[in-house]
Amino acid sequence: MPKTIDSSSQKTSTQSQWQHRHVLDAHDLSKTDIEAVFARARSFAHIFDSPEKALQNLHGRVVANLFYENSTRTRGSFELAAKYLGAHVLNFDVATSSVKKGETLDDTILTLQAMGVDAIVLRHASSGIVSQLAHRYGEKLTFLNAGDGGHQHPSQGLLDAFTIQEKLGLVAGLKVVIVGDIRHSRVARSNIAILQTLGADVHVVGPAALLSKELPCATHTNLDEALQDADVVMALRIQLERQDTNVQYLSSLSEYTRFYGVTRERLVYFCKPTVKVMHPMPINRDVEMTSDLADDPQYSLLFDQVRYGVLIRMALLSLLLERRGVA
Ligand code: CP
Known about the structure:
By secondary structure, the chain is α/β, with parallel strands linked by helices.
């Protein structure tokens, strides 16, 4: 018999715990907040089996997607999440907009507000910009940080932790190893915050030049050592677009793969037998992780992450817009 969820009681209990006007930084979220997001996300899980995929939670609301950096998953899943909840969606196309005529970000935000937009999902190369805008315009607009430079990507941290919770049954006490370009990774920062809040034992590993000194977790430069008894291994993309072109971070990509590539052999030899691999994607196949591993359902959670990303973004939009009294 399939499990059913009373979504009305879920909605009331999670809403009363939720106090946020925006989602800007994973560090702002308490364990109670994260659990409220997860409970709300679970209440929407039926959407994938529904022939219409059309709820009314955000009927009449307007969500604008502003992506000043490229995206497939975050942009697509925020768009679908808003549409599944019944909202109108404005996909602002930076490349064909008046940004190309020199219009400022502030004027763009004010323009969208004047058009009746309720929530702005923003990805931008500038670290901290979403919080600054929320400070300036947050009385009338809800802001969701969809990735700001190398700083934060809170919905990614939430969907990754949710994937672990749903597929492994718990997060607390698990050893999660994040491997790759930690220094430039907003995904790493968001994951460390969320996973530690939920009680995971988080380790990061990468070449010394791609680590960051101020991280509040165990750091390693030797992948095999870091992988000992790991429950989850999360590989990250080398962020060439954020690297200082005057600095040589890696001697070569092939050397990176030799020392830091996640392979079946490494998993079998060093990790727990139940280990799972994750990657926020886009993935450089056979660089950060072997392609056969990324496609192996025994190990890979890559497309579970994508699917759960839609539910997490539905949860965030509904919690935020209901909180503002506009849904
Ligand atoms: N994980 C992630 O942020 O992917 P996109 O860049 O495709 O949104």
